Amino acid sequence: MEETVSRVISDIEDLRGNPEQAPLSEQTLTDLQILLNNSLSDSLYDELPSKNLSPSALIAPIASAMDSSPSHHSLLASDVFLSLLLAPNAPVFTLFTPISFISFLRSLRRSCKAHSSPGPGQDASQNRKRKRAGAGRSRAKNPQNDYDSTDTSSQHDPKVLLRVLEKLVRVMDLIHLDRFPETLRSLIQTVAEIPVTALDVCGNTAHYSKLLNLCSRLLREILKPEHGEPSNTAAEVLKSLSSLVLMAKSQARTFALGFVTSLVDQCDGVKKALVNFPRYLVKKAPEKAEPRALAVDSIMEVVRVLGVEDQIAFVKYVVQMAQGKANLRLLAVDLILNLVTSLKDPLGVESEASEASEAWGMWCLEVLVKRCSDVSGAIRARALSSLAQLVGLLSRGERTSMVLKEFMGFGKVGDVNVEGTMNDMLRRRCMDDKAAVRKAALLLVTNLTSFLGGAIDEVVLKTMGMACSDPLISMRKAAIGALSEAFRTFSSETVITEWLHSVPRLITDNESSIQEECENMFQELVLNRVCRAASATSSCIVPSNGKMKRKSIGNEMEKLFPNGTLYLLREVCHGEVSPWVKKVCTNLGKKKRMNEKIVTALQNIIKVSESLWLSHSMPIEKWTAPPGAWFLLSEVSTFLSKAVDWEFLRHHWQLLDKHEVECEFKSPILHKNASEEEESTEYNTVAWASDRVFLLQTISNVSVELPPEPAAELAHNLLKRVEAFNMHSTETGLKVDAHLKALKTLCKRKASNLEEAESLVLKWINQVLSMASGIIEKFISDNSDKKAESSLFTPPRSGTRKGSKSVAMSKSLSKAVTAIYTVGSLVIVCPSADMSNVVPLLHTIITSGSSGPKLNNLPGPSTSLQREAPSFYIQGWLAMGKLCLADGKLAKNYIPLFVQELEKTESAALRNNIVVMMADFCVRYTALVDCYITKITRCLLDPCELVRRQTFILLSRLLQRDYVKWRGVLFLRFLLSLVDESEKIRQLADFLFGNILKVKSPLLAYNSFVEAVFVLNDCHAHNGHRESHGSRKESQSFSIRGTDEESRNKRMHIYVSLLKQMAPEHLLATFAKLCAEILAAASDGMLNIEDVTAQSVLQDAFQILGCKEIRIPSTRASSESADIEEEGGENGSAARGKAITQVVKKGLIQNTVPIFIELKRLLATKNSPLIGSLMECLRVILKDYKNEIDDILVADKQLQKELIYDIQKYEAAKAKAAVAEAVVGTKPKSGSNHSPDVSKNLTKTQVQAVRQSMSSNELPSDSRVASAMADAAAAATARSVLREINKGTGTPPLGSFSVPKVKSCTGMFNSKNVKRMDVIKSVRKRQSFDSDEEN
Q: Is the full-model pTM beyond 0.85?
């Protein structure tokens, strides 16, 4: 050992003379460590004086080794340094210096980071790569760190690091750092970094856990009073640990949170720092969604361990924070949700403490309600979703739910204002511009519905129904959930109606998950509800004496089937709901999700209704089943045929068949009873007919399960009914179709094989066709004979004879109508049937009264059947249309006749039917109908709303299925539907243009926009926009020509609807096309500006260029980034917005401003009234770019001066006119051309000037007052305009202007009265928008 001591002292002595302190070698450090481990430090200290060395001479070379050596060498030096301090009888105060301790801490950091740098063969993350690059840059600046670069491959034992940390814990008892605050701060920061940087050094979980334990012990040692004031030290420790607390989930974060929460048991100074720590974390919380959520979790971990008073103090802080900046408001909303859900008794219902402890939950709820109307969409969405979660949580307890109801205003009947405020807020949020806000509002409505037991505002209910058609899938899902929850908890008629009209239609949605949700909700809320209601009701009804009215029996039925079951059934068969119900039932049946209980339930409802009717001694011929019961049974029986009771069907078939004949030709008009009985008779007739139709459909569905004999008997009865042709006219179509469908199915059941079945079907079809042809021919002949006979009698015949003849003709007409409809239905049932005998008859009917050719050997009517028998005439066209669908040759001959009749007929019913047939022809014979599409589009302007709506829907479907293309005038004619008189058509048009076409044809609006401007104004004054389709009269009918306010508003609504479909790049291109094809054309003389329609086109162009929908402000991307953040991906949108802004500036430089100036000069020479619209448009355009006006007009400063001066003069004149109108008592019109109130811009100087001018005369007139105020307001407006443009530079009064003074710039030239035509021509030669022409 003496040799070792001598070697160490010799090395230290050699290093003493070196001017630059060199580090101890690794061998010397090893020798020193051996001596210290063997407790031989005393012999070392005894030898040092002999060499004239002090103990402190050891520290300098060791510190140099810790600073500049490789990591393993440096760590060994650190171990030796701590061992020297821990040696027995060591002079600690001599050996310890702040500089040496800083070197030790630097060595400790480097030892952790050096190992964590990934080598070439290691799989490292991007974050570590960035750190490695940063370290490389720092090494380039500090050559002394070159040791680190050579040490990346060296692997030192993690036990050495753990040993060093263990010794450091022991050293903390020997040294006091209260005298060295910087050293203490450096130590705290180093220890806080170790859990993150030393993760790879440890190698396994056991070593890392031990390392975290040592870091915790170190931090606790640091918090002792001998190292400084505990409150200050704790604040520094918590500040250093904040980065760990706010980082992503990891072991380091768990360690930091565990240590921080354990400080609650420390002294008062440490507790004080801990209480302030959550507020510090609030300020350091990131703005991104996921890191912010982790920060909220960390903050709540700390808040939970605080005392009640400290927790309430933090709640107050969060409430105040909710009034701050946007990021703080968003964080406050997140914190409030966690505070209320995590802390105990937020509403103060479980304890009787102070008022503060009772009220803090209310403060939080008030903040959330206020933030639901925040300016930022992201904050509104988070506040609504948080409030929805709190409603769901607080509604679980009885006492908390009572307090919550009182807070929201639903607990007190008299407090209407709060409830109204809540409902108003929900209405606004359900119609918010942001999808995330609407979705959160629907979630809140769902939870409120469950909480309040279904009491829901009708407007909110309607809004939820509209949300089911939202373009976003998540919105539609949320709307389904909200409406279904309302239906589930509250079975009112309004809720049932809204649900049935909104949810079942989603069965045709493109998203399969929405279809499945629709099926699930229908099965739960409709089918299962009907099953439960029917199973809970006994079919046995106690007989009652005396007759009752229908309403009384209906009320009794409502009691037997509660929860709106009967109303639900009635709405299910509604005309707008039944198609979707059929589709839902079909999907459920194909998936085998139908339960036989629904069949039993529906049969039970019908039986109970019949028994109840008979028990009150009511006539059975007036009984009808509950509306919707037979309809739903007919749909479910398709897939549950075995569950239907045949005896039940036979009983009701006999009942309906027996009593229907009695009311065949009875009419409420012939029997003049009381009004109530007339309504009852009419209701019974329609209800019996519909019940019979649905019963026949049910029989047809279950006919496969029928025994052969009942099937044959039923088929015979049905055939007799069909051959009688005496079905009631109100439901002729449905009844005939049901009879024929059931007959066909029964024939297949009766036959033994397919061939026999086909022969049976053809046999009875030919038989029925023969009888129908005879009836039709007889009616045509009788009609001709009657007219011929009546023409022989000059005096009128007796009234009695005429009346009996009329009744006979009515019966004959009804029979003929049924016969001709049956012919068309037979073609659908069997397209291969021989129709050669029927075609001539139908030709005679549809050509009656026309000058067209007649077929030979047919009794043609002398007068038009269209006037004498319109229903028969219309059915003739329908039957011919069905024949044409089955026969292509026939269609080729008769389609032109259909188009001709569509143009000339005055019957709206016939036009509607022909439009439907033409749509079917377009699917079957696309090439034949394509040339007639423009004539079909004329029905979009039909005087009948039904025809317009039907045409719009049918053509939209054909366009979506690509049977018709968007070419020619088709798209331009569809635009008028956006401003149709009917609200339903406008809604359909908005959905077509805003949702369907925006996805299917995104360039359609852009490509046709400029042409639409000319067509809507019926302008033919442009050389390049000559009309090429149709006549001038037809183009006028599809225009909105006129300069009146209504016409301009309609056209502007169409333009705005098209602009909303365009992407930002298309908006830019449309802006350029409007300038090039309209404004530039007008300045070049290609567009005759003296023409009225051309002036209207120019005015529309100015309004479009000045509207907000076409502008792309430079702040668009940044303003929306906060709202997009919740959905993710705001960076791409922001970059795209900046790029578009640059292109907009370039377009303005090249095209817009020169064209505007030249056009303004042209209009000024002609004294055109359009100058005002031009200047207003130009002012709006340059208002968004007032800071870039120098760059936009950099090539011509004189042009810049003229433009600014013109805008200033226009603003001054407009302000003067506005003030003059205000003084004389005339209120200015609220239009887009009016600027804001100029009276607010008057300074004290202008006010004094006004008073002086008014005091010049004792009794000034109104005109003088107006003139004085107008002059002052004009001066104020002019100064404000110039101040904006010159970025705050003051300007002299208006009267001192000889030449407008603008911001000086080098290279400015002055050229007065020089035409700018060369600028215009040069701009037009540039091909900046070639891509637009390609599109």
A: no
